[in-house]
Model the fold of this input.
Amino acid sequence: MKKNILFIAVLFGVFAGMVTSCDDALETGSDRQIFNPTLSEKTDSMFYTLGILKGVQDAIDQYVLFNEMRGDLTVPNAANATVDLKNLSNFSGEPTRYDSAYVYYRIINNCNYYIAHRDTALRTGSIAVAMPEYAQAHAIRAWAYLQLVKTYQKVPFYTEPILTISQAERIGNGTYLDIYQIRDELVADLEKFKNVGVPNYGQITVGTTNLGSSKRVQTALTMFPPALVLGDWYLETNEYEKAAKAYFAYLKDQKVAMRSYFVPWNQVLSSLPNVNAIPNDFTAYSTGTSWSNIWAMNPDLNYEIITYVPMSVNKLRGSITDLPRLFGYNFYITPSNSIDSLNPIRTFEESVYLEDRAIDPSTSYLNLCNNQTYYYYPHGEEIRGVSQTQVFGDLRRYITLSDQVTQDNDPYYVMVKYSGANVPIYRTSKVYLRMAEALNRAGYPDAAFAILKCGLNPAVGDIDSLKDETRDYLTNTIPFLATENRSIFTGNYGIHTRASGITRGDKTPYQLDTIVKAKLLELETLYPAYVVQTGTLADTINAVEDLICDEYALELAFEGNRFGDLCRIARHKNAPDIFGNYLYGPNFGGIWLKEKLAFKNPLKDLSREENWFIPLRRE
Done:
């Protein structure tokens, strides 16, 4: 029994994640599920779904920290990081508070219970009232299993709810499945639900923040679209076309285009060490809305967030997160004057920015940002062509990190994406980048690069440069360019445009051949014993994959994706390509990952895939 304590704990926690505290961010106003677990009434679905999401709240710090501390974008602050954070960062393999399988299995067990007991035949007129929640339970369960298998490599798999100790013992002693085996168990159900919409209980106000403003949550944005979870499972297991089709199903059904954002120039200029270095002919390029609006999570202004986890405004109102504090932002401080003030007064000690932050951005991240090129029309005149400068680097850095100084005027950075105590899971840009990753590995790197450059917009001239076979693929198989979908995707902009200016069009230096050539030269320098250019499509695929990897870092930094992204891309590189060839050798992905993380001095050999995981601790 001692060996199975993990699953016995899950048994006794089966309802824990379904019951919200009195003032929780996901409060339903009902405790019926405690006394009526038969799921026989139409309103039961809402209570159970919000309870399942409560379990996601409890797992979210672990989700972010495991992926970010083990990635290449962060380092633990030498003075303030805990031993747990340092052990994650150096791959010591020592137990930490952030490797609990229990938090995911509790989500899974609650989903299993709902799926096993919900009557999906309940209807209001012709509407199957329970179907969105039923699909949601399948999607969240699949998401939780994906996090488990990415963390522990092989895990116990079960789909019936654990309700007895004998069940717990049987599952704990049962067969452990890997990512490919669990995919085969789950994707058939997800395929059935990929066009089912998410539940929507409207907008709720969940409390007053420490700045005196109301925190509002659009409940539909706390849900997990089944098609996106399905796409992730396919992408993680190298099923590239299936992944692209799943992502496209969501983008088409929800009419989701890649919107234009920009970074306000006042923030850029205030952080530049030398404004005199700006070229004399420079003119800023701004279109769309401010990129900072994404992090406000304002339901009235959100065009980017698809799924996020809203954490409570204080402990009395539900689950809180440690992420803002760890990254240097004090969300939970109470200012000196009234909490209801719109302009609270703070002393230095009460500043929302914390000198004693535990996590810092890595030099690797800062160098990546600083080395990006910005493209602009000189003096704002398009007729003069497009010029370029590296004075600014990637503009998203200026919003992601807030430049601060200590009381002794020493500079430091605070990462502010969690300043509202909200954790994004899916964003539009993340879906498009994963679409690019899938299209690239499916053999269409020009389509993948177009997502960075112009956003697969059927109305712009960049599409004309696609190969004939690519245009056919994007018209008939993944039909971004099909006539019936033009109205959706003519709103697309390139993701790289968000921080790099004029990337769209034939006048910009940001062109596939030019950028790929530069990336291949970089890879040859980093991996001289492995990367030898062959002039083939496989070369281009590998280079574009690294460009996508860079864009993941620039766009999604510190959001809980990075180590998972690196491992997935490494698996792509380790696998034979679509022609059955290993371009740079069968373990180039392992070598690539090891080099990415070499500056962290890991205590394990990361060229070996088994060292990407940690042991599943059952006791």
User: Anything to note?
Assistant: The chain has 24 helices and 16 strands.
